[in-house]
Design a protein that fits this description.
This protein has helices at residues 14-19, 42-55, 102-105, 138-148, 157-167, 191-208, and strands spanning 2-7, 27-29, 33-37, 59-70, 80-88, 92-95, 98-101, 111-113, 125-130, 152-154, 171-180. It has 209 residues and is of the alpha/beta class. The protein has one domain (2-208): Nucleoside phosphorylase domain (Rossmann fold), CATH 3.40.50. The strands form two sheets. The protein has a five-stranded mixed β-barrel with strand order 4-10-9-5-11. Strands 6-7 form a two-stranded antiparallel ribbon. The radius of gyration is 17 Å and the shape is globular. The mean pLDDT is 97. Bound molecules: ligand LNDFFVEH. Ligand LNDFFVEH is lined by residues 8, 40, 66-69, 131, 134, 153-156, 178-179, 181, 186.
C-alpha cells in the first residue's frame, strides 16, 4: 500500500516536486506515494480528501504536510513538529464571555488525533488548533492561549485528522514553523526557510520509507 501526502498548496511541496520530477496538477501518482493538493482551509481540505479517499484504493498512511504558525517562541522558526492532537477551536458557540465547544453543545467533537504514528520520527510532539481566521490580534491570541494553550495553528490539520478518523486510516501531521502567532507582522515570517526544512524532511521520509 502507498502513502498519501496531503498539502494545501503546491508551493509548500516545491522541492519535493523538483526532487522526484513530479508532474503538474493537484493529484500526482508515483509507485510509492501519491500527492493530493487540496487548497487552503478546512473546507477545501475535507472535501478534496474525503472525495479522494472514498474513490481510491487503500493507503497505509496519510501525511499532512505544511507550514504553520507557532504560539511558543522557544521553538525556532523553521523547526519541524509532529502535531499529534489538533482541534477545531472555533467550532461551538459564544455564551457571553465564555466559549461552548461543540462537545459541550452535544453536537459532536472538536478534537482529533494522529493515528498509528510510525516509530522513530524523532520530532517533538505538540498540540495544535485549526482555524478559519488566522489569529493576529492580542486579545484573541491571549484568549485562545488561556482556553486551549495550543503550540501550533494551521488552517487544515484537524480536517485531515477528521477525514482519516471517518475512514479509519493511519494519519500524521508534520508541519514546519513559518511564523509566530502574534499581532500581524508578515515581514517576520520565514516561509522560505520553513518550506525548505519541510521538504528536506519529506524527501528523506518518502525516499527511505
Ligand atoms: O498572509 C497571511 O495572513 C497568511 C496567513 C496564513 C497563511 C498564509 C500562507 O501563505 C500559507 C498558507 C498555509 O499556511 C498555514 N499557516 C502558516 N502560518 C499560519 C498561521 O499563523 N496561522 C494559520 N495557518 C498558518 C496554513 O495552514 C495555510 O494553509 C498567509
Amino acid at each position: 500500500m502507498k502513502i498519501l501526502v496531503v498539502a494545501a498548496t503546491r508551493a509548500e511541496l516545491a522541492e519535493c516536486f523538483q526532487n522526484f520530477g513530479l508532474a503538474e496538477g493537484n493529484f500526482i501518482q508515483t509507485p510509492h506515494f501519491d500527492i493530493l493538493i487540496t487548497g487552503v482551509g478546512m473546507t477545501a481540505t475535507a472535501f478534496a480528501l474525503g472525495q479522494h479517499l472514498s474513490a481510491s484504493a487503500a493507503y497505509k498512511l496519510v501525511i499532512n504536510l505544511g507550514i504553520a504558525g507557532c504560539y511558543d517562541h522557544n521553538i525556532p522558526l523553521g523547526s519541524l513538529v509532529n502535531i499529534t492532537i489538533d482541534e477545531f477551536s472555533e467550532l461551538g458557540a459564544e455564551d457571553k464571555d465564555e466559549f461552548l465547544t461543540i462537545d459541550a453543545m452535544g453536537f459532536g467533537k472538536s478534537r482529533y488525533f494522529a493515528r498509528d504514528i510510525p516509530a522513530g520520527l524523532g520530532l517533538p510532539e505538540v498540540n495544535g488548533i485549526t482555524i478559519n481566521k488566522v489569529h493576529g490580534n492580542k486579545q484573541s491570541i491571549d484568549s485562545i492561549i488561556k482556553r486551549l494553550n495550543p503550540v501550533t495553528e494551521s488552517m487544515e490539520g484537524a480536517a485531515v485528522f477528521y477525514s482519516c478518523e471517518q475512514l479509519d486510516i493511519p494519519c500524521i501531521q508534520i508541519r514546519s514553523i513559518s511564523n509566530y502567532v502574534e499581532e500581524r507582522n508578515r515581514e517576520a515570517w520565514k516561509i522560505g526557510l520553513a518550506i525548505k526544512n519541510l521538504n528536506n524532511w519529506a524527501i528523506k521520509f518518502l525516499t527511505y520509507d
